[in-house]
UniProtKB/TrEMBL annotation:
SMART domains linked to this entry: CPSase_sm_chain
Gene source species: Armatimonas rosea
Alphabetically ordered keywords of this record: Amino-acid biosynthesis, Arginine biosynthesis, ATP-binding, Glutamine amidotransferase, Ligase, Nucleotide-binding, Pyrimidine biosynthesis
Protein name (Swiss-Prot/TrEMBL): Carbamoyl phosphate synthase small chain
SUPFAM superfamilies, per the entry: Carbamoyl phosphate synthetase, small subunit N-terminal domain (SSF52021), Class I glutamine amidotransferase-like (SSF52317)
Highest classification ranks of the organism: Bacteria, Bacillati, Armatimonadota, Armatimonadia, Armatimonadales
One example GO MF annotation: carbamoyl-phosphate synthase (glutamine-hydrolyzing) activity
PROSITE patterns: GATASE_TYPE_1
Length: 363
Protein backbone atom coordinates (compact mmCIF):
# COMPACT_ATOMS: atom_id res chain seq x y z
CA UNK A 1 0.00 0.00 0.00
CA UNK A 2 1.23 3.49 -0.85
CA UNK A 3 2.17 5.87 1.95
CA UNK A 4 2.93 9.60 1.87
CA UNK A 5 5.21 11.62 4.15
CA UNK A 6 4.78 15.41 3.96
CA UNK A 7 6.87 18.07 5.68
CA UNK A 8 5.69 21.49 6.76
CA UNK A 9 8.11 23.12 4.28
CA UNK A 10 6.14 21.57 1.41
CA UNK A 11 8.37 18.58 0.71
CA UNK A 12 6.54 15.31 -0.08
CA UNK A 13 7.96 11.77 -0.10
CA UNK A 14 6.11 8.78 -1.52
CA UNK A 15 6.85 5.23 -0.37
CA UNK A 16 5.24 1.99 0.79
CA UNK A 17 3.44 1.57 4.07
CA UNK A 18 4.17 -0.97 6.77
CA UNK A 19 2.78 -1.38 10.24
CA UNK A 20 -0.64 0.21 10.73
CA UNK A 21 -2.62 2.26 8.22
CA UNK A 22 -4.26 5.65 8.69
CA UNK A 23 -2.79 9.02 9.59
CA UNK A 24 -0.13 10.32 11.98
CA UNK A 25 1.63 13.60 12.58
CA UNK A 26 4.55 14.79 14.63
CA UNK A 27 7.92 16.46 14.66
CA UNK A 28 10.23 14.85 12.08
CA UNK A 29 13.64 13.90 13.52
CA UNK A 30 16.45 11.51 12.62
CA UNK A 31 18.56 8.99 14.55
CA UNK A 32 22.02 7.99 13.32
CA UNK A 33 22.39 4.68 15.18
CA UNK A 34 23.11 1.57 13.11
CA UNK A 35 21.20 -0.74 15.48
CA UNK A 36 18.64 -0.38 18.24
CA UNK A 37 15.44 0.35 16.31
CA UNK A 38 13.39 -1.52 18.91
CA UNK A 39 14.79 0.57 21.76
CA UNK A 40 14.19 3.73 19.73
CA UNK A 41 10.57 2.76 19.09
CA UNK A 42 9.87 2.25 22.79
CA UNK A 43 11.89 5.18 24.18
CA UNK A 44 9.42 7.65 25.77
CA UNK A 45 11.63 10.57 24.75
CA UNK A 46 10.45 10.03 21.15
CA UNK A 47 6.80 10.65 21.99
CA UNK A 48 5.13 12.90 19.43
CA UNK A 49 7.83 12.44 16.81
CA UNK A 50 8.10 10.85 13.37
CA UNK A 51 11.47 9.14 13.67
CA UNK A 52 13.73 8.60 10.65
CA UNK A 53 16.58 6.11 10.86
CA UNK A 54 19.62 6.97 8.76
CA UNK A 55 20.89 3.39 8.64
CA UNK A 56 19.29 1.94 5.48
CA UNK A 57 18.26 -1.64 6.40
CA UNK A 58 15.84 -1.92 9.32
CA UNK A 59 13.93 -4.87 10.77
CA UNK A 60 16.50 -7.60 10.01
CA UNK A 61 16.63 -8.89 13.59
CA UNK A 62 12.95 -8.66 14.42
CA UNK A 63 11.36 -7.76 17.76
CA UNK A 64 12.39 -9.13 21.18
CA UNK A 65 10.12 -8.28 24.15
CA UNK A 66 13.02 -8.43 26.63
CA UNK A 67 14.54 -5.37 24.92
CA UNK A 68 11.59 -3.01 25.29
CA UNK A 69 12.40 0.32 26.97
CA UNK A 70 8.81 1.06 28.00
CA UNK A 71 5.40 -0.58 27.93
CA UNK A 72 4.45 0.51 24.42
CA UNK A 73 5.62 2.02 21.14
CA UNK A 74 6.21 5.71 21.81
CA UNK A 75 6.98 7.17 18.36
CA UNK A 76 4.18 8.78 16.36
CA UNK A 77 5.47 7.22 13.14
CA UNK A 78 8.50 5.40 11.73
CA UNK A 79 10.48 6.20 8.58
CA UNK A 80 13.04 3.81 7.03
CA UNK A 81 14.88 3.38 3.75
CA UNK A 82 14.39 -0.37 3.43
CA UNK A 83 12.29 -2.69 5.58
CA UNK A 84 13.71 -6.20 5.84
CA UNK A 85 11.29 -8.79 4.45
CA UNK A 86 12.48 -11.44 6.89
CA UNK A 87 14.28 -11.36 10.23
CA UNK A 88 16.92 -13.63 11.74
CA UNK A 89 17.36 -13.65 15.51
CA UNK A 90 16.90 -16.59 17.88
CA UNK A 91 15.46 -14.24 20.54
CA UNK A 92 12.91 -12.53 18.26
CA UNK A 93 9.19 -13.32 18.47
CA UNK A 94 7.80 -11.31 15.55
CA UNK A 95 8.64 -8.96 12.70
CA UNK A 96 8.87 -5.17 12.92
CA UNK A 97 5.93 -4.92 10.53
CA UNK A 98 3.62 -7.06 12.68
CA UNK A 99 4.74 -5.31 15.86
CA UNK A 100 3.82 -1.87 14.53
CA UNK A 101 0.53 -3.24 13.19
CA UNK A 102 -0.40 -4.46 16.68
CA UNK A 103 0.69 -1.14 18.17
CA UNK A 104 -1.33 0.91 15.67
CA UNK A 105 1.73 2.86 14.53
CA UNK A 106 2.33 3.85 10.91
CA UNK A 107 5.57 3.21 9.08
CA UNK A 108 6.84 4.20 5.64
CA UNK A 109 9.62 2.47 3.69
CA UNK A 110 11.22 3.01 0.31
CA UNK A 111 11.88 6.74 0.57
CA UNK A 112 15.23 8.51 0.28
CA UNK A 113 16.06 8.90 3.97
CA UNK A 114 19.40 10.47 3.05
CA UNK A 115 17.66 13.36 1.32
CA UNK A 116 15.20 13.66 4.22
CA UNK A 117 18.03 13.74 6.78
CA UNK A 118 19.96 16.36 4.82
CA UNK A 119 16.86 18.55 4.68
CA UNK A 120 16.38 18.32 8.45
CA UNK A 121 20.08 19.08 9.03
CA UNK A 122 19.93 22.14 6.80
CA UNK A 123 16.46 23.46 7.69
CA UNK A 124 16.04 22.11 11.23
CA UNK A 125 13.41 19.77 12.62
CA UNK A 126 9.89 20.50 11.44
CA UNK A 127 6.38 19.16 11.70
CA UNK A 128 5.36 16.38 9.34
CA UNK A 129 2.46 14.10 8.57
CA UNK A 130 2.27 10.49 7.43
CA UNK A 131 -0.75 8.91 5.74
CA UNK A 132 -1.98 5.93 3.77
CA UNK A 133 -5.32 7.62 3.06
CA UNK A 134 -4.50 10.97 1.42
CA UNK A 135 -2.68 12.38 -1.56
CA UNK A 136 0.38 14.53 -1.09
CA UNK A 137 -1.67 17.68 -1.73
CA UNK A 138 -4.33 16.70 0.80
CA UNK A 139 -1.74 15.81 3.40
CA UNK A 140 0.09 19.11 2.94
CA UNK A 141 -3.13 21.07 3.24
CA UNK A 142 -4.03 19.30 6.48
CA UNK A 143 -0.52 19.72 7.84
CA UNK A 144 -0.35 23.42 7.08
CA UNK A 145 -3.74 24.10 8.66
CA UNK A 146 -2.96 22.14 11.83
CA UNK A 147 -2.67 24.16 15.02
CA UNK A 148 -0.99 21.55 17.22
CA UNK A 149 2.77 22.09 17.33
CA UNK A 150 5.26 19.80 19.02
CA UNK A 151 6.73 22.56 21.20
CA UNK A 152 3.33 23.54 22.58
CA UNK A 153 2.48 20.13 24.09
CA UNK A 154 3.55 18.78 27.48
CA UNK A 155 4.64 15.34 26.26
CA UNK A 156 5.90 14.32 29.69
CA UNK A 157 2.33 14.02 30.96
CA UNK A 158 1.56 11.63 28.10
CA UNK A 159 4.36 9.18 28.97
CA UNK A 160 4.80 9.32 32.75
CA UNK A 161 3.52 6.48 34.91
CA UNK A 162 -0.04 7.08 36.17
CA UNK A 163 0.76 5.46 39.52
CA UNK A 164 3.93 4.85 41.56
CA UNK A 165 5.61 1.46 41.22
CA UNK A 166 8.70 -0.30 42.54
CA UNK A 167 11.58 -1.84 40.57
CA UNK A 168 14.62 -3.77 41.77
CA UNK A 169 15.64 -5.98 44.69
CA UNK A 170 13.41 -6.74 47.65
CA UNK A 171 13.45 -4.25 50.49
CA UNK A 172 15.47 -6.65 52.67
CA UNK A 173 18.14 -7.10 49.97
CA UNK A 174 18.44 -3.53 48.68
CA UNK A 175 21.59 -1.56 49.43
CA UNK A 176 19.84 1.76 48.88
CA UNK A 177 16.39 3.10 48.04
CA UNK A 178 15.94 5.80 45.41
CA UNK A 179 12.89 7.86 44.44
CA UNK A 180 12.61 8.43 40.68
CA UNK A 181 10.82 11.36 39.06
CA UNK A 182 9.43 9.69 35.94
CA UNK A 183 9.37 12.14 33.03
CA UNK A 184 9.83 9.28 30.58
CA UNK A 185 12.03 6.67 32.25
CA UNK A 186 13.70 3.95 30.17
CA UNK A 187 13.60 0.46 31.63
CA UNK A 188 17.35 -0.01 31.21
CA UNK A 189 18.02 2.82 33.64
CA UNK A 190 16.06 0.89 36.25
CA UNK A 191 17.87 -2.31 35.26
CA UNK A 192 21.29 -0.68 35.70
CA UNK A 193 20.36 0.72 39.10
CA UNK A 194 19.00 -2.67 40.17
CA UNK A 195 22.32 -4.33 39.21
CA UNK A 196 23.95 -2.13 41.85
CA UNK A 197 21.47 -3.26 44.51
CA UNK A 198 19.34 -0.11 44.28
CA UNK A 199 15.59 -0.42 44.80
CA UNK A 200 13.73 2.33 42.95
CA UNK A 201 10.28 3.73 43.59
CA UNK A 202 9.09 5.43 40.41
CA UNK A 203 6.74 8.40 40.79
CA UNK A 204 4.60 10.27 38.23
CA UNK A 205 6.13 13.49 36.90
CA UNK A 206 3.39 15.41 38.73
CA UNK A 207 4.29 13.94 42.13
CA UNK A 208 5.19 16.42 44.85
CA UNK A 209 8.50 16.49 46.65
CA UNK A 210 6.73 15.45 49.86
CA UNK A 211 5.36 12.35 48.15
CA UNK A 212 8.79 11.40 46.82
CA UNK A 213 10.42 11.98 50.20
CA UNK A 214 7.78 10.24 52.31
CA UNK A 215 9.75 6.96 52.43
CA UNK A 216 12.99 8.79 53.30
CA UNK A 217 14.91 7.57 50.24
CA UNK A 218 18.70 7.52 50.13
CA UNK A 219 18.80 9.34 46.81
CA UNK A 220 16.81 11.05 44.06
CA UNK A 221 16.89 10.26 40.35
CA UNK A 222 15.63 12.62 37.61
CA UNK A 223 14.70 10.72 34.46
CA UNK A 224 14.90 11.50 30.75
CA UNK A 225 11.77 12.48 28.87
CA UNK A 226 10.28 14.18 25.81
CA UNK A 227 9.43 17.73 24.88
CA UNK A 228 10.28 21.27 25.82
CA UNK A 229 11.60 21.76 29.40
CA UNK A 230 10.10 25.26 29.42
CA UNK A 231 6.64 23.67 29.82
CA UNK A 232 7.61 21.74 32.94
CA UNK A 233 7.42 24.37 35.66
CA UNK A 234 5.71 21.91 37.99
CA UNK A 235 8.63 19.47 37.70
CA UNK A 236 11.22 22.24 38.13
CA UNK A 237 9.52 23.29 41.37
CA UNK A 238 9.63 19.70 42.61
CA UNK A 239 13.33 19.40 41.74
CA UNK A 240 14.09 22.61 43.64
CA UNK A 241 12.55 21.13 46.78
CA UNK A 242 14.28 17.78 46.30
CA UNK A 243 17.71 19.36 45.88
CA UNK A 244 17.15 21.43 49.04
CA UNK A 245 17.13 18.21 51.09
CA UNK A 246 20.85 17.75 50.26
CA UNK A 247 20.25 14.11 49.35
CA UNK A 248 22.34 12.69 46.48
CA UNK A 249 20.72 13.53 43.13
CA UNK A 250 21.46 12.20 39.65
CA UNK A 251 19.79 13.39 36.45
CA UNK A 252 19.89 12.09 32.88
CA UNK A 253 18.93 13.97 29.69
CA UNK A 254 15.74 15.90 30.55
CA UNK A 255 16.79 15.37 34.17
CA UNK A 256 19.94 17.37 33.40
CA UNK A 257 17.83 20.20 31.98
CA UNK A 258 15.40 20.17 34.89
CA UNK A 259 18.31 20.39 37.30
CA UNK A 260 19.76 23.37 35.46
CA UNK A 261 16.36 25.06 35.37
CA UNK A 262 15.89 24.42 39.10
CA UNK A 263 18.91 26.66 39.70
CA UNK A 264 17.61 29.40 37.44
CA UNK A 265 18.94 28.24 34.07
CA UNK A 266 17.05 28.23 30.80
CA UNK A 267 17.05 26.03 27.70
CA UNK A 268 16.97 26.53 23.95
CA UNK A 269 16.00 24.31 21.04
CA UNK A 270 18.74 22.68 18.98
CA UNK A 271 18.43 22.96 15.19
CA UNK A 272 18.13 19.20 14.61
CA UNK A 273 18.92 17.70 18.02
CA UNK A 274 21.30 14.98 19.11
CA UNK A 275 19.91 11.52 18.37
CA UNK A 276 22.15 8.53 17.86
CA UNK A 277 24.84 6.35 19.42
CA UNK A 278 28.06 8.09 18.38
CA UNK A 279 28.17 11.50 20.06
CA UNK A 280 31.56 12.47 21.58
CA UNK A 281 31.46 14.14 25.00
CA UNK A 282 34.42 15.62 26.87
CA UNK A 283 34.66 15.60 30.65
CA UNK A 284 36.29 18.96 31.39
CA UNK A 285 37.94 18.18 34.76
CA UNK A 286 39.72 15.06 33.43
CA UNK A 287 39.91 15.66 29.69
CA UNK A 288 38.44 12.21 29.14
CA UNK A 289 36.28 11.71 26.04
CA UNK A 290 33.49 9.14 25.85
CA UNK A 291 31.27 8.15 22.95
CA UNK A 292 27.67 8.45 24.06
CA UNK A 293 24.10 7.56 23.18
CA UNK A 294 21.90 10.64 22.95
CA UNK A 295 18.30 11.62 22.33
CA UNK A 296 17.36 15.23 22.97
CA UNK A 297 16.22 18.30 21.07
CA UNK A 298 16.93 20.97 23.70
CA UNK A 299 20.03 22.10 25.60
CA UNK A 300 20.86 24.25 28.59
CA UNK A 301 22.12 27.77 27.98
CA UNK A 302 25.39 27.87 29.97
CA UNK A 303 25.21 31.66 30.26
CA UNK A 304 22.07 31.36 32.41
CA UNK A 305 23.53 28.92 34.95
CA UNK A 306 24.76 30.25 38.33
CA UNK A 307 28.55 29.86 38.25
CA UNK A 308 28.77 30.04 42.04
CA UNK A 309 26.62 26.91 42.39
CA UNK A 310 26.82 24.80 39.23
CA UNK A 311 29.84 23.77 37.18
CA UNK A 312 29.44 22.82 33.53
CA UNK A 313 31.45 19.62 33.80
CA UNK A 314 31.01 18.20 30.28
CA UNK A 315 30.51 19.48 26.76
CA UNK A 316 29.54 18.02 23.39
CA UNK A 317 32.55 17.99 21.07
CA UNK A 318 30.38 18.44 17.98
CA UNK A 319 28.70 21.71 18.94
CA UNK A 320 29.99 22.67 22.40
CA UNK A 321 26.62 22.37 24.14
CA UNK A 322 26.25 21.49 27.82
CA UNK A 323 26.47 17.74 28.47
CA UNK A 324 26.90 17.63 32.23
CA UNK A 325 26.50 19.58 35.47
CA UNK A 326 28.06 19.18 38.91
CA UNK A 327 27.00 21.13 41.97
CA UNK A 328 29.91 22.78 43.75
CA UNK A 329 28.85 21.91 47.30
CA UNK A 330 25.94 19.44 47.16
CA UNK A 331 26.03 15.73 46.14
CA UNK A 332 24.24 16.58 42.91
CA UNK A 333 25.23 15.90 39.29
CA UNK A 334 23.62 15.27 35.92
CA UNK A 335 24.50 14.27 32.37
CA UNK A 336 22.71 15.08 29.13
CA UNK A 337 23.33 11.70 27.46
CA UNK A 338 22.34 8.09 28.23
CA UNK A 339 24.79 5.98 30.27
CA UNK A 340 22.29 3.10 30.16
CA UNK A 341 22.68 3.10 26.34
CA UNK A 342 19.98 0.80 24.89
CA UNK A 343 20.92 1.37 22.20
CA UNK A 344 24.51 2.50 22.07
CA UNK A 345 27.92 2.29 23.75
CA UNK A 346 28.31 1.58 27.46
CA UNK A 347 31.36 3.86 27.89
CA UNK A 348 29.60 6.02 30.48
CA UNK A 349 27.84 3.37 32.55
CA UNK A 350 30.18 4.16 35.46
CA UNK A 351 28.06 7.22 36.29
CA UNK A 352 25.55 4.93 37.96
CA UNK A 353 28.39 3.79 40.22
CA UNK A 354 29.22 7.42 40.93
CA UNK A 355 25.64 7.90 42.10
CA UNK A 356 25.98 4.80 44.28
CA UNK A 357 29.17 6.14 45.86
CA UNK A 358 27.45 9.43 46.70
CA UNK A 359 24.83 7.48 48.66
CA UNK A 360 27.49 5.29 50.29
CA UNK A 361 29.33 8.40 51.47
CA UNK A 362 26.21 9.59 53.29
CA UNK A 363 25.13 6.22 54.69
Amino acid sequence: MKAILALSDGTVFEGESFGATGRASGEVVFNTGMTGYQEVLTDPSYAGQLVTLTYPLIGNYGITPEDFESRKVQVAGFVVRELADTYSNWRATESLDSYLKRAGVLGITGIDTRTLTRRIRHEGVMMGALSTEETGEELLARLQSATDKYDAIDWVKTVTTPEPYVWGPDESEAKFRVSVLDCGIKFNILRELAKLGIRTQVFPATATADQMLASNPDGIFLSPGPGDPALLGYAVETVQKLVATEKPVMGICLGNQLLGCAFGGSTFKLPFGHRGANHPVKDLPTGRVVITSQNHGYALDPNTLPADQLEVSQINLNDGTVEGLTHKSLPVFSIQYHPEASPGPMDSRFYFERFLKLMEARA
